[in-house]
Amino acid sequence: MNVEWLYRLPPFLRTRVLRFGFNRHPAWRGTGGRVVEVSPGLDRIRVALPLNRKTRNLAGSIFGGALFAVTDGLHPLLIMLALGQDVIVWDKAASIRYRRPARGTLYADFQLQPEEVLAIRTAVERDGETDFTFTVDLKDAAGVLHTAVERTVYIAEKSFYKRKLMQEA
After folding, report:
1. Quick check: helix, strand or coil at residue 129?
2. CA of 91: how far to CAs of 22, 96, 133, 166, in Å?
3. How does pLDDT run across 80-101, given as a tens digit for each residue?
4. Which residue(s) pair with 146 in the sheet?
5. Which has fewest Cβ within 10 Å: 53, 59, 107, 145?
6. φ and ψ at 125, to 5 degrees?
7. What is the pLDDT of residues 22-70, one digit of tens each?
8. Phi, psi values for residue 68, rounded to 5°
9. For the domain 4-168, what is the CATH code?
């Protein structure tokens, strides 16, 4: 995904365009979630997942697939925004732990800390590639944890990744 265009926009438009783009993208709309906030530094995204007819399961709580899907792709995007176009970023693995049924809107905060960016950048420069694991908690407005999703993201230098593909072929 090419994200360089985003930095050509005036800073006051970047967060609005990113939020609008996510919320209008068909795959993202299908999750039932909505991006409600993007930080000015493009290092934090807040998502809301309401309980409604599109996200409700037979038991009257939020469907597990919606809980899982709403966490997809946001950390890779934050990594691409932080590291630029010289890296390949893929979701590699994920697991979900249900703590309690969600019978109202849940919120998830996706954040990339400066020390995480440094650790990722250092590992990629040293090894050419790395895996990094993030945990995303889905909580209600009172801060009660309902679901925890652990996602492992693969990050590699583009040149390293291309050489690796050629060797595997």
Report:
1. strand
2. 17, 14, 10, 21
3. 999 988 999 999 999 999 999 9
4. none
5. 53
6. -65, -35
7. 899 999 899 999 999 999 999 999 999 999 999 999 999 999 999 999 9
8. -75, -45
9. 3.10.129.10
